[in-house]
Amino acid sequence: MGIGRPVSLTSSIAAKIVSATATAGQTSFTVTGGYNINQLAVFRNGVRLLSGSDYTAIDGATVTLLSAASLNDTLEFQVFDTFQASDAILKSSSNQTIDGALTATGGLNIGIQSAGSNVTTGVVTAFNFVGSGNTFLYDASSKTVDISISGSGGGGGLGTAINYEDATTSPFSYIDYEALVKDNLNFTTDINETGFAGVNTSLVVTVNPKIVVASGVGMTVGAGKTMVIDVLQLGDL
Fold this sequence. Notes:
0% of the residues lie in helices and 40% in strands. The protein has 237 residues and is mainly beta.
C-alpha cells in the first residue's frame, strides 16, 4: 500500500496516470501529454512525493526529482484535469445558445400547439405534411425550409390553386365535386382523439357538394358539432 495522503476526485475532475521506469541516477522525466501546473501527483515505487521537497514540476512537461532515482525505480505521474459544463446542454438553464448543428437521433421531446391549445406533448421524430398542393422544399445554400400549403379541396378549404405556366399562382383554384370518406371518422371536441374539430361547438364544413362514405366506414358527428356540406352551394352552379 502506498504511503501518503490519498487523492480524492470530485465529479468535475478527470485524471490519468503516466508511468516511467528510471535509469540509474535519473532525475528528469517527461510526462507524456503534459500536465497542468499544481495539478499533478508523483509517486516513486508507490510512495507519494512532496512537491518542492522531493520534486519540482514547473513547466507543464517535465518533472525533476531532487534526489536521483535508482535503476528500475517506478515513477507514476497522476495528472489531473478539470472539465466544465459550459459546452454542454444544461437541463436547468432558461436560455442557451448552441453554436453549430444539433442532431437528435432519438427525436425531440417537444410540445406543439394549435391556436393556443396543446396538440401533443412528447417525442416528435418527423413533421408530415399531407394533402394535395403541399410542398416542402429545403434550400441547402441558405439552410432554410420553404413550406407551401395550397389546399386540398376539402375540409372547409377554398380549393387547390391553379398556377400559370411560370408556376406562379393564378386567381383560380379547383374543388373536386366529390370527396370520399375512406376511414372511420368521428368529429369530436377531445383534442387527444383523431377527428378533433375544436374544443367548442363548431361547424364541420366541406365545400365538396357530394360526400361518398365508403362501404363499412362510419362517419360520426359528435356532440356539439354540426356538419355543413357544400357551404359554397357549388352543386347549384
